[in-house]
Amino acid sequence: MAEAINGGLDAGLTVSQIKEALSQLYAYTGFPRSLNALGTLQKVLEQRQSEGKATEEGVEASPLPSHYNALAQGTEVQTKLSGQPFNYDFCPAEDYYLKAHLFGDIFARDLLTHADRELITVSALSGLENVMPQLQAHVHGALNMGVTEEQLRGIPVALKVAGLQAEALRCEAAIAAAVDGKTDMVCAQSPWPIGEPNTAYAQYFIGNSYLAVLDPLTGLCNVSFEPGCRNNWHVHHGAVQMLICVSGRGWYQEWGREAVPLVPGAVIAVPEGVKHWHGAAKDSWMQHLTYHANAQPGNSNEWLEPVTDEQYNTLQ
């Protein structure tokens, strides 16, 4: 958090702008997180002052006009963001808080534009589990508030640069659903960890995969494949590889045989010495657990040629 705040200040954000962003986020991430973040900002400012680093304080928000009506203002902003009037009749009190306080009192403050606030909100919601409906709604809302598609798609890129793979995947899935009309979000909502980019084996994969080591002692791992990603043909010598699909859809194929679908619950015991490959479907992420059984001393993997597009594209 401190690193991100320092980065923002070095890039030209003012203290008042960062305060505003962190204050707004209490409505989306909760008061405890917001207060903790503001506390971190205080420490960063103290550290920068001790190091003699330049920090621009910025201006305060403009006073609201005397005739300001929070409910009317918030209703107008919420309608623009949603693309249509929105009334939460199931809980009128919550509906009032959303309109008068969140989209009224908070969005009326002019330290940040409405587009700025939606960029902040989409970024923050990408870091929370089980809020995909709200994340998708704010992806739509960001576009309605003037955020460009390029800016929107830059959020998961920035999250990946920061090492936040699961958060980036969540954001990509929401954008794919809300903007591109795609519905594949199984991996983004999966309880299984995404892990880190599988860079050590990237040379043996087409597309991007991610590796999460679940048990170093047994070698149990979760491998996540992006749509279209598959590993090369390969052979396990001196061990049986176990594959257990836990989310999404994919394929497993042995040399000379038809491909077998990988769907949640599918279990494959890859015989020792058999040439094979496995990966995601063209239009779906896929996750599988993997470990080696009956491993003999000196067991090894033999990596072979890639699965060509011609071979892969025949799978339906």
Please give a quick description of this structure.
With 316 residues, the protein is α+β, with helices and mostly antiparallel strands. The chain has helices spanning 2-10, 15-24, 26-29, 31-51, 70-82, 92-106, 114-125, 132-144, 149-161, 165-178, 309-312, and strands at 196-197, 205-206, 209-215, 220-225, 230-231, 234-237, 240-248, 250-254, 260-262, 267-270, 276-280, 286-293, 300-303.
Please characterize this protein's 3D structure.
This protein is 41% helix and 19% strand. The chain is an alpha+beta fold and 316 residues long. Strand 8 and strand 9 form a beta hairpin. Helix 9 packs antiparallel against helix 10. The protein has 2 domains: 169 residues, AhpD-like (Up-down Bundle), CATH 1.20.1290.10; 117 residues, Jelly Rolls (Sandwich). It has a 6-stranded antiparallel sheet with strand order 1-3-4-12-7-10, with no helix packed on it. The chain is elongated and about 80 Å long. The chain has 11 helices and 13 strands. The two termini are 44 Å apart.
CATH class of the largest domain: Mainly Alpha
CATH superfamily of the largest domain: AhpD-like
Instruction: Please give the domain count.
Output: 2
What's the CATH topology label of the largest domain?
AhpD-like
Secondary-structure element order, as H and E?
HHHHHHHHHHEEEEEEEEEEEEEH
Question: What would you report as the Rg, rounded to the nearest angstrom?
Answer: 24 Å
Record the strand order, biggest sheet: 1-3-4-12-7-10
The multimeric state of the shown protein is: single chain
Residue stretches low in confidence (pLDDT < 50, at least 5 long) are: none
CATH architecture of the largest domain: Up-down Bundle
Q: For the residues shown, what is the average pLDDT?
A: 92
Number of helices: 11
Q: Tell me about the biggest sheet? A: 6 strands, antiparallel
Number of strands: 13
Spatial gap, N to C terminus: 44 Å
> What is the strand content?
15-25%
Structure class: alpha+beta
